[in-house]
Design goal:
Chain A is mainly α. In chain A, about 70% of the residues lie in helices and about 5% in strands. In chain A, α3 (about 50-75) crosses α13 (about 285-305), α4 (about 80-100) runs antiparallel to α5 and α4 packs across α12 (about 270-280). Chain B has 18 helices and 22 strands. In chain B, the strands form five sheets. A six-stranded mixed sheet of chain B has the order 6-7-8-3-9-10, sandwiched between helices. In chain B, strands 16-19-20-13-21-22 form a six-stranded mixed sheet, sandwiched between helices. The chains are: A mainly alpha (about 350), B alpha/beta (about 500). Bound molecules: adenosine-5'-triphosphate and magnesium ion.
Chain lengths: ~350, ~500
């Protein structure tokens, strides 16, 4: 167990260190001081709402990465988390802003609608994949583009939206539908949906590691033929895996929708689906790894703002994020090989050169 | 041609050591292969034969030791390096592209040698004569039988310039006549100066074809034997280090309780050719082993997969203990008590990346003691895996190693142990002892006999005619997707059965 944990920790730490080193070099070359830049970024955590913002956006990233990771477990590449979450957020905002409902129920209905919309948006690629063998990579990418059009239609003033200033927005959700957060005064307000993200993480761990469903999911990912011979219905697994991924993706937009914005607008954020792919890779599909990856990513995003203050281009953070993903992939391979070598030396030391003569007996 | 010093040997391996986590697969192995000989490698499952050959073929690096080819020391980093030095390997699982033609399979990746035009075609024709392949170069590989595919594999490595060819368990899939033909080809090629390294668990064959036998035990070479004088018993003792168990005598345990009935089963060819199965009728009773004899590719796979529900018959019915299960899923059939040993263990029976205990779960994830209300009981899976490892003598450093790290024969033992657990009522077994050594084969046979005596019904498909005759209570011959005759295992000889299988009138 312990060497397993050691290599699980070692690789990402190594990767982050290498990425930081390379970024430092890039800063030096461009004539900035890496120490100053990193110092400013870290000291940001203490100022204003940066710490809370970091945790809040980590929760969003976390949900997105879980959605991606569910597909990864079955070797399905759901690139459409982006489209699924945006469609789901828009539909949930429309429903939540239109239906008058009592507190709690209102929130629950919005969450359910978001999950269902996410699942519905991925249902098309899922069915195509299961019954026609169409690559989910292609179909989900294309549906990302379609999603943009659908959202524009949904929130246009002619349908469900309204014009506010020079922005178009869905009808605002009444406070009965909000998800209460934890107000920390000066430092900002933590999203209540962080709890939901944590529950999703635990659920993901339990589902994959401890249940028949999780076993069948991973089995079909690793060997569809052996899974079929073992009684797993491959077609059903493709459907369920993608639908679950889509349902989780549907929740990605909710922390902000129910905790801060209360409406879906033309300028509502996007890109979380793609960030989720990078973080799922970073966390190696492991619920704890993904959580750490999400926090790191969010920290880099939020503290980048401070770089302008010291006159360092904040794009350096984008470079760093890219470098981290690359070096994680490399670091895992390096650590794996080193471990294998060490293990082989251990075996060699523990075994005599000539094997002992065959034991007598039955 | 001038010969360099010490080049009496085509290949010489000295002091080869290879360690994997938890095991030493090869420990200080020496192997010297003369030019123009057939050199057999014998040894128990997990002894390290395949590992040694993969090292020679550049697929894995040795931790220690040297390789010399024609007296010159070489280092192979990839199979490409080995091929450049004239060494080729035919794996037990064929690596051909089914939907390409014979010629395309040969040329794929070797276009630079003789181009893809006239010169290449001439060379292929020439080599086809050498390996005895009669199929036309424009024939699609999916239409070839196993024996022809094997010849094509050999042709492929010869085309790439191999003079020394490694054959890893080439005869496991062949019927006796095909084995004889293969051996005739090898003998003719040997006369032309080709060298062969040959792995097999069938000692009779080894003694028939080999010029020298090297025995490997527990990762090290224990010596060579002269096939002209050594007996099977002596060989086995060299391999195992102790005496072999003698097969026990048997009494019939057949009852009149019907377990499996297949009625009028037919299966259309999705590609539109002739029906894959047609009018199959058979019954297996509790305590009975029904053996299906046939040359590979005559519908055995389809029959087995139809019984398992992995294919749906176009006509006819499958009944388990009187209940029609024709429409049931594979899982439902397994839950009703069918155990299944597939013919291709690496593709259909195992999750190579998963540890042994997780492989124990596969196929049993919905049933006690492993599955409970949608959850997996890891502790139960682990302890039952320990039991299988002990009972079936699976050689492994532990149950946390991945299934892909086990040697071929040990993987097979694990699968057999798993499928016999949970007291199945019917076992559908395709080649249950393929790739296992003589000792383990006897072990699996006695487990099967024990389960049969307790009332297990077995539908047995095997290319090993001794196994088929030795285990079966009833024999049926399959040809072109139809059951064309029966034989009495008490009186039939392997030769007679082999003849019936090829469709010649016996
Ligand atoms: N990739 C691997 N990782 C870890 N262990 C391995 C690996 N490949 C082989 N081994 C181990 O090395 C040993 C020798 O395996 P090998 O496949 O060479 O046996 P073999 O003689 O070919 O046996 P068989 O007759 O069953 O095919 C076995 O104990 C096996 O578990
Ligand atoms: Mg082997």
């Amino acid at each position: 167990m312990s060497p397993k944990i050691r290599s699980a920790v070692l690789a990402p730490v190594l990767a982050v260190a290498v990425a930081a080193l390379l970024c430092g070099l890039a800063l030096l070359i461009s004539g900035d001081s890496p120490l100053q830049a990193f110092g400013v970024m870290i000291s940001q955590l203490g100022s204003g709402t940066v710490a809370v913002d970091t945790v809040n956006s980590a929760a969003v990233y976390y949900i997105a990465a879980l959605a991606v990771a569910i597909g990864f477990q079955m070797k399905l590449f759901n690139i459409g988390v982006e489209g699924q979450f945006r469609v789901a957020a828009a539909v949930a905002a429309v429903v939540g802003g239109t239906l008058p409902l009592p507190p709690v129920l209102h929130t629950l209905v919005i969450i359910a609608v978001a999950a269902l919309s996410g699942a519905a948006w991925v249902a098309i690629p899922a069915l195509l994949k299961a019954y026609r063998g169409v690559s989910e990579v292609i179909s989900t990418i294309m549906l990302n583009a379609v999603a943009t059009g659908l959202i524009a239609y949904l929130i246009s003033p002619d349908t469900f939206g309204q014009l506010v200033g020079n922005n178009i927005t869905t009808p605002p959700i009444e406070p009965s539908g909000w998800f209460p957060g934890l107000a920390l005064g000066e430092s900002g307000t933590l999203f209540g949906m962080i709890l939901v993200a944590a529950v999703l993480g635990v659920g993901y761990w339990f589902l994959l590691g401890r249940t028949r469903f999780g076993f069948e999911l991973r089995a079909s990912g690793q060997s569809p033929t052996a899974a079929a011979a073992g009684g797993v219905n491959a077609r059903r697994m493709v459907l369920i895996a993608l639908l679950t991924s889509g349902a989780v993706a549907g929740l990605v937009g909710l922390p902000e929708l129910l905790g801060r914005d209360h409406a879906y607008t033309l300028t509502s954020p996007s890109g979380y689906g793609f960030t989720g792919i990078a973080i799922a890779l970073l966390g190696r599909n492991h619920p704890v790894g993904i959580a750490l990856g999400a926090l790191l990513w969010a920290f880099l995003d939020k503290s980048a703002v401070a770089l302008d203050v010291v006159g360092t281009p904040r794009e350096i953070v984008l470079i760093m994020q890219g470098l981290i993903v690359l070096s994680v992939v490399v670091a895992y391979e390096v650590v794996r090989r080193v471990d294998l070598r060490a293990e082989q030396r251990r075996v060699a030391a523990a075994t005599p050169t000539r094997p002992r003569p065959a034991e007598v007996g039955t | 041609m001038s010969t360099a010093a010490g080049s009496e040997y085509a290949v010489e391996l000295r002091g080869i050591t290879k360690r994997f986590p938890g095991v030493v697969a090869n420990s200080d192995i020496d192997l010297a292969v003369r030019r123009g000989e057939v050199h057999a490698l014998c040894g128990e499952n997990g002894a390290g034969k395949s590992t040694l050959m993969k090292i020679l073929y550049g697929m894995q690096g040795a931790d220690e030791g040297t390789i010399s080819v024609d007296g010159t020391e070489v280092v192979f980093r990839t199979p490409g390096d080995a091929i450049a030095a004239g060494i080729g390997m035919v794996h037990q699982h064929f690596m051909l592209a089914d939907n390409l033609t014979v010629a395309e399979n040969v040329l794929l990746g070797a276009e630079r040698l003789h181009g893809i035009g006239r010169r290449a075609r001439d060379r292929i024709a020439e080599l086809a004569a050498t390996v005895g392949l009669v199929a036309s170069p424009s024939e699609r590989v999916e239409r070839l039988g196993v024996a022809d595919r094997q010849r094509l594999e050999i042709l492929k490595v010869l085309y790439r310039g191999a003079r020394t060819v490694i054959l890893d368990e080439p005869t496991a899939v062949l019927v006796p006549q095909e084995v004889d033909e293969l051996f005739a080809t090898l003998a003719a090629m040997r006369a032309q100066g080709y060298t062969f390294l040959f792995i097999s668990h069938k000692l009779d064959e080894v003694r028939a074809i080999a010029d020298t036998i090297t025995v490997i035990r527990r990762g090290t070479s224990v010596g060579t034997a002269d096939p002209a004088t050594v007996t099977n018993r002596e060989l086995a003792e060299m391999m195992v280090g102790s005496e072999l168990p003698t097969p026990q005598t048997r009494d019939s345990t057949v009852t009149d309780r019907e377990v499996l009935r297949v009625a009028g089963l037919g299966l259309a060819d999705p590609a539109g050719g002739r029906d894959l199965l047609d009018g199959i009728d058979l019954v297996v009773h509790a305590g009975e082993v029904l053996g299906i004899a046939g040359v590979e590719g005559n519908g055995q796979t389809e029959l087995v997969e139809s019984v398992m529900g992995m294919r749906r018959g176009t006509r006819g019915r499958v009944l388990l203990a009187g209940t029609d299960v024709s429409g049931a899923t594979t899982m439902a059939r397994r839950e009703a008590g069918i155990g299944y040993i597939p013919e291709d263990r690496s593709r259909h029976a195992l999750l190579p990346e998963q540890p042994l205990w997780a492989n124990r779960v596969l196929g049993f994830q919905s049933r006690a003691p492993i599955g409970r209300r949608g959850l997996i009981d890891r502790a139960a899976a682990r302890s039952d895996t320990e039991r299988i490892v002990a009972d079936f003598d699976v050689r492994t450093p532990g149950i946390d190693v991945t299934a892909g790290a086990l040697s071929g024969g040990n993987q097979q033992k694990l699968v057999v142990g798993r499928e016999l657990s949970g007291d199945p009522v019917l076992l559908v077994a395709a080649h249950p002892t393929r790739g296992v050594d003589v000792g383990a084969q006897a072990g699996i046979w006695s487990e099967l006999r024990r389960a049969r005596a307790a009332g297990l019904a077995v539908l047995l498909v095997s290319a090993d005619l001794d196994e088929l005759i030795g285990l079966s209570d009833t024999l049926a011959v399959i040809l072109d997707g139809r059951l064309v005759g029966t034989a009495d295992p008490a009186t039939v000889t392997p030769e007679q059965l082999g003849t019936a299988m090829t469709g010649a009138t016996a």
